[in-house]
Amino acid sequence: MVDFLLLVTGLSGFIILFYTALISYTEKEFRAARISLFLSTAWLILFLLTFWFNFPGKETVSFLILGGVFLGFIVIVLPINHPVKEPFPTPVEKHDERDVMFSRNELQPGTSRYDEYYNKNPERKSLDGKFREKPGLLSSGSLMYHSVMFAAAEATFETIEALKPWVNGPVAEAKIPVNPPEISNYMKRWIKKQGAHSVGITGLKNYHLYSHKGRGDLYGKEIKNTHSYAIALTVEMDHEMIQTAPKAPVTMESSQQYLTSGTLAVQLAAFIRRLGYSARAHIDGNYELICPLVARDAGLGEIGRMGLLMTPLLGPRIRIAVVTTDMPLPTDQRKDYSSVIDFCNRCKKCADACPSASIPHAGRTKEKGVSRWKINSESCFTYWSTIGTDCGRCISVCPYAHPNSPMHNVIRWGIGNSTLFRRFALWMDDLFYGRKPKASPIPFWLNPDC
Questions:
Q1: Phi and psi dihedrals of 251, rounded to 5?
Q2: Pairing relationship of beta strands 309-310 and 229-236 according to DSSP bridges
């Protein structure tokens, strides 16, 4: 019986580790593939040697090996979760979009907007002067400049700009009665079929909204949104492209998924207006609200150490758009993703890998009454302005951001299930992928000569 258990355990472990090696190879994670192949071979040899050969104390050794394997397995999968203080911090006041780095980047020296903003916020003028000394996003003088790939990203942003007149529009005069649960399910299935990864609905809260517009012709205008509901949707950013971060492909992919999510949001808002209800899309460069907060409250994830939404299956490797509306809709429950907070407390890989040291290593701190990790947005944006891309290094190294596959989803399940498993998963991620994984080479198909 003991010999049989040894054989079964040895073969099972070998199959799992060899499968991991194959998956890692297909994902072009060659370090993980090599380590998995080595471990699968070592595991099989250990069990086969113990199974085949007779030696003094064989039975005791066999029991110790089997006991260690099964005990270790049981310990890391037991649903033991330490409580996390304030897993869902709720903001107590609105943010002003004029304070966002993208808005500050649009301020031109010598203009009234520029003078007005820095007269009110003099402490930010010297900080912002640092990024203004750099070449800038998608600039030809930036460190990561690539004429073809930067042109592709700029073309995508221009297309997003073309969507802006369509974020809002006239509402059909005839209001069609809808069954809230049925229309909600219909819209979710439809938008997912169109390419969304996840969709959730929440009541629109006061703290979701910016206090004032910070970009474009409506700069400085107080935001008044009377809608009652918000529909958040996410789209996936390609793993291979993101793994090249902070090189040019990451901005190509980021901009493309801003476009994809924006197109879906504009399409959904137009659909709702045709049914006779008011609706507005909130897309890149034309927001009235903070998308990650809306998506979190709609049950799509939790805010992690890097300040981005961490989704259950893709981590931060997503882009978000939102549609607000007065159509009556059932809301989704905000889910308990406190395991994300606990994992981010322990992990810190994004902070270790951040080229500009903009992500804190310390725990969450209180800011305006809310527990959060505070990103140094000035140093982050200055780095972006130096290299010419939107970096994405934190996303690329995040253990949650691995591909959505059965192997990685089992790990994600364990992370959500057990505090001990979270420690084990982090150790394994460091072993297989490295504490500071190297950026992947640019995919060959992006070479304009191929």
A1: -75, -35
A2: unpaired
Please report, in angstroms and rounded to a whole number, the separation of the first and last CA atoms in the chain.
59
pTM for the full predicted model: 0.92
Q: What is the CA radius of gyration of the chain?
A: 25
Q: Is the separation of the CB atoms in 13 and 65 below 8 Å?
A: no
Structure tokens at 282: 């909130």
Q: What is the predicted pLDDT for the residue at 298?
A: 97
Instruction: Please give the Cα distance from 284 to 294 (Å, whole number).
Output: 15
Contact 123, 238 (CB under 8 A): no
> In the 3-class helix/strand/coil scheme, how is 418-431 assigned residue by residue?
CHHHHHHHHHHHHH
Helix 406-417, helix 2-26: angle, nearest 10 = 110
Handedness of CA 337, 259, 409, 350 (dihedral sign): negative
Taking residues 312-320, report their average pLDDT.
Answer: 96
Strands 318-325 and 365-367, by their bridges, are unpaired
Please, where are the H alpha helices in 214-247? 239-242
Q: Centre a 10 Å sphere on the Cβ of residue 111 and count the other Cβ atoms it contains.
A: 10
Mean pLDDT of 219-242: 97
What does the pLDDT look like over 120-136, one tens digit per residue? 999 999 999 999 999 99
Per residue in 79-91, pLDDT (tens digit) is 777 766 666 667 8
Question: Token match 């099972």: residue?
Answer: 12
Give the CA angle between residues 35, 41, 45 to the nearest 5°: 145
pLDDT digits (tens, 9 = 90+) for 164-215: 999 999 999 999 999 999 999 999 999 999 999 999 999 999 999 999 999 9
* DSSP class of 264: H
CA 437-396-366 angle, to 5 degrees, is: 105
DSSP state of 237: P
Rounded to whole angstroms, the Cα distance separating 61 from 68 reads 10
Q: 280, 324 in Cβ contact below 8 A?
A: yes
Give the C-alpha separation, 33 to 22, whole Å: 7
> Which sign does the torsion angle of CA 214, 218, 223, 226 carry?
negative
Amino acid in the structure at residue 117: Y
Q: What is the rounded distance in angstroms from the CA atom of residue 39 to the CA atom of residue 421? A: 19
CB within 8 A of 280, min separation 6: which ones?
Answer: 167, 168, 225, 227, 269, 288, 323, 324, 325
CB 319 within 8 A of CB 295: no
Q: How far is CA 306 from CA 75, 225, 350, in A?
A: 30, 28, 7
DSSP state of 212: B
